[in-house]
Every structure is written in C-alpha cells, then in structure tokens.
C-alpha cells in the first residue's frame, strides 16, 4: 500500500474527504518525526511504539573489496516495535 492508497482508505473509514485525510496523515507523520528528533518516544497502546535507537560505531567490510576494513560511524535509527494487539491481529 502506498501513501495515496492509505489516504483513500483513511478517508473511506473515517468519512473524511481525501484532502482532510491526507492532511491528518501528514500531520501525524510530521508529529512523529518531530518527536523522534527531540528524542521522545511515542507509544500507541496496542498498536506499537516509535523510538530512536543509538547504533555504536563499528568496523565493516567494503563490499567491493572484502579485505578492506572500513569504519562505520555511530548513528541513530528510527525504530517501530509492534504492540501486542497488532502482532495478534497480523498472526490470525
């Protein structure tokens, strides 16, 4: 499902116009992004949790030259962990 299909589905289920559904979806995505940038964790009970995890610096291998060791710098990665209700619904 792409964004346009998601907007159409939200509009249909919530009885909003597609424009209002798109605005709501964009606002949700922007809010999640801003919260993660600030280091906050977003927990939607039953659905899941959005958070940022720190990745340590490490050594890796150059795919083109496996003998060459390269340094991979530390970074932050956004992560979504599914909640219990979502996991149960998917596994039915």
What proportion strand?
25-35%
Q: What Rg, in angstroms, do the CA atoms define? A: 19 Å
Number of continuous helical runs: 3
Order of helices and strands: HHEEEEEH
Main sheet overview: 3 strands, antiparallel
Give the beta-strand count: 5
Anisotropy-based shape: elongated
Strand order of the largest sheet: 1-2-5
CATH fold label of the largest domain: HU Protein, Chain A
**Share in helix:** 40-55%
* Strand-pairing-aware structural class: alpha+beta
| CATH classification class of the largest domain | Few Secondary Structures
What number of structural domains do the residues give?
Answer: 2
- Which stretches of 5+ consecutive residues score pLDDT under 50? none
The whole-number mean of residue pLDDT values reads: 95
From the coordinates shown, what is the CATH architecture of the largest domain? Irregular
> Would you identify the CATH H-level superfamily of the largest domain?
IHF-like DNA-binding proteins
Distance linking N and C termini: 20 Å
What does this structure look like?
The protein contains three helices and five strands; from the N terminus they run ααβββββα. The chain is elongated, with a radius of gyration of 19 Å. It has helices at residues 3-14, 18-37, 84-90; strands at residues 42-44, 48-55, 58-62, 65-72, 75-82. It has a three-stranded antiparallel sheet with strand order 1-2-5. The protein has a two-stranded antiparallel ribbon with strand order 3-4. The chain is α+β, with helices and mostly antiparallel strands. Strand 3 (58-62) and strand 4 (65-72) form a beta hairpin. The relative contact order is 0.12. Belongs to the bacterial histone-like protein family.
